[in-house]
Amino acid sequence: MERVSAKEVCLVIGAGEGAGAGIARAFAAEGMPVCMTRRARSLDQLKALAEAIRSTGGEAHAFGVDARSEAETIELFATIERDIGPISVVVFNIGANVQFGIRETTTRVFTKVWEMACFAGFLAGREAARVMVPRGKGTIIFTGATASIRGRENLAAFAAAKNGLRAVAQSMARELGPQGVHVAHVICDGAIDGVFTRSRIDDVTPLLDEDLILKPDDIASNYVMLHRQQRSAWTHELDLRPWREKW
Questions:
Q1: d(CA 18, CA 202)
Q2: DSSP string covering 117-176
Q3: Per-position b or e across 114-134, b if 16+ CB within 10 A of its CB
Q4: Who is most buried in 29, 74, 106, 227, counting CB within 10 A?
Q5: Any idea of the CA torsion for 89, 93, 94, 96, to the nearest 10 degrees?
Q6: Which pairs with CB-CB distance under 8 Å and at least 24 residues apart come from 169-172?
């Protein structure tokens, strides 16, 4: 593949149909080429999102990647750096929100959730650091959740993974900030409008009208702001929640 742009690139790992899609659209609207990943089985939906971004004048590329695979993640970063442009922003946005009572939580469930929501974040963060630190700049954003700061019933696996991801982000922020790389962990403390939420709630319109659930475009605008800031205060945690506490 020939390099199509020398512009700085935004990579969204986990560009689902809610917050991830909104984040990709927002960075594309800033004029950045956007690279997006989902698992290969969802590549058709991701390609449709890329086409929608291109139809509005943006540049977008879709990749079917298992973010839990070290080899695939390394290859993803190498391909983007070689063929598209230098990666300036990495957003790790994989959710893995599953609910099981502790007696029903199998080893397989616990391990898979940790791999998706924590281990994959470590891989993404490490590879981002490897390309950003030599340039002395860049932004790495991890999407957190209510479970990043407290565990609730039936969410032991998810809470353990999200708490782990938050710890990875904090350690990276303190290590990489002095080297020019801004690391942020964003706690989206509440339900986010999207396919997952709409599959669980019959009518989200009243909740949206009263700001009781988070809107993907609002989240995305905050992510763009975090990249624009490039704060010297390099350990940064942003708490996004509906104005009226739900929990």
A1: 17
A2: IIIHHHHHHHHHHHHHGGGT-EEEEEEEEGGGT---TT-HHHHHHHHHHHHHHHHHHHHH
A3: bbbbbbbbbbbbebbbebbee
A4: 227
A5: 160
A6: 169/121, 169/125, 169/140, 169/142, 169/144, 170/235, 170/237, 172/125, 172/129, 172/140
Q: How many residues does the chain have?
A: 247
* pLDDT score, position 209: 57
- Rounded mean pLDDT for each run of 10 residues along the chain, 247 residues in total: 66 92 96 96 96 97 98 98 97 91 96 97 98 97 92 94 96 95 86 54 59 70 85 49 43
Residue 87 CA to residue 100 CA, distance in Å, equals: 37
Sequence-distant (≥ 6) Cβ neighbours of residue 221 within 8 angstroms: 26
Residue type, 117: A
User: Distance (Å, rounded) from C-alpha 110 to C-alpha 154?
Assistant: 12
Selection from 16, 19, 68 nearest residue 43 by Cα? 16
Backbone angles phi, psi at 121, to 5 degrees: -65, -40
Token representation of residue 79: 């391909």
Residue 234 and residue 184: Cα distance in Å, rounded?
8
Token pair in block for residue 22: 């909104």
Print the SS3 string covering 190-236. CCECCHHHHHHCCCCHHHHHCCCCECHHHHHHHHHHHHHHCCCCCEE
The residue assigned the tokens 């590329």 is 61
